[in-house]
Amino acid sequence: MKMVAETKEPHSTPVRTEDLETPEQVARALEEHGYLADEALATVIFLALKMGRPLFLEGEAGVGKTEVAKVLARWTGGELLRLQCYDGIDVSQAVYEWDYSRQLLHLRAAEAAGRASTGEALEDELFSERFLVRRPLLRAIEDARGDPSKPVPVLLIDEIDRADDEFEAYLLEILSDYAVTVPELGTFVASRPPVVVITSNRTRDVHDALKRRCLYHWVEHPSLEREIAIVELRVPGVDHELARQVAAATSALRGMNLYKVPGVAETIDWAQALTALGARELNASVASATLGSVLKYQEDAQRVRQMGVEALVGARAPDVR
């Protein structure tokens, strides 16, 4: 499993966080960029932006934690830098490493040119910034030192609960001062804190010391009405009745004793699959054929079929219009 870094082009009209006045303003902006946040989530995002604090989002998989960072990047115009955590991740994958192959080529070129005996000067060349490979954490700090008119990057540290305690402790150090020390070059310090979003699926408890440095929010599955609105926002052309049925059926699935309950992402996938099939309503036949869009374990699909797909399709949402 490898760390993934994502980048995006800056937005043409970046948002200045100091100009934000209310959580409602944040909620409206998020909705304009495809994310429906409830009052509590909009408030904690507003506070994180105003206070320059990391935002720690915890909750079950698929409830929209990662999407918050992506939407913030689209809205603010900051570059999205994604660090996907995993067991065994270390400084070379998360912060920086030296480009050893280029250093070796440079050394051989120096030897061929008769400069290998210059010693300390050659060493300074080898450990200069031209050979430094910047990973997401260092890039976030470096970019936040730049032009004050340029939006700060959005650093997404995804699934921190998959990393080990040692990496968590190192991350704690970086988030305390927004600084990274490279022994050969010195210390890089951000003049402005980047926007930091940390997510966790709570497969293990994250240390209190890290949470204390963040603003915390538990992301719940949305209410039925909100999930219907999310489906209609994220699935263009979806029939309103179909959106209601899919949201209600997914809500019913969450009430079953499943190995992996579906999140909002699966609700959207199911609605997209049904729309692609040209379905106008959810019936037992099409629901059974498309269960793989919403359930990701064979045992869960078997359980639903044994209990009767008809009962699932019969779950109805009240009309919210």
Explain the overall architecture.
Helices cover 45% and strands 12% of the residues. It is an alpha/beta fold and 321 residues long. The chain has 3 domains: 17-95 and 135-218, P-loop containing nucleotide triphosphate hydrolases (Rossmann fold, 3-Layer(aba) Sandwich), CATH 3.40.50.300; 97-129, no CATH class; 224-313. It has a 5-stranded parallel beta sheet, with helices on both faces. A two-stranded antiparallel sheet has the order 3-4. The relative contact order is 0.13. Mean pLDDT is 88; it is low at 1-12 and 317-321.
- Named CATH architecture of the largest domain: 3-Layer(aba) Sandwich
Low-confidence stretches: 1-12, 317-321
Please estimate the helix content: 40-55%
Biggest pleated sheet: 5 strands, parallel
Helix and strand pattern: HHEHEHEHHEHEHEEEHEHHHHHH
Write down the domain tally: 3
Q: What is the CATH domain class of the largest domain?
A: Alpha Beta
Tell me how many strands there are.
9
Outline type: elongated
Distance between the termini: 45 Å
The strand line-up of the biggest sheet is 2-5-8-1-9
Percent range for β-strand residues: 5-15%
Structural class: alpha/beta
What do we call the CATH homologous superfamily of the largest domain? P-loop containing nucleotide triphosphate hydrolases
Provide the residue-averaged pLDDT.
Answer: 88
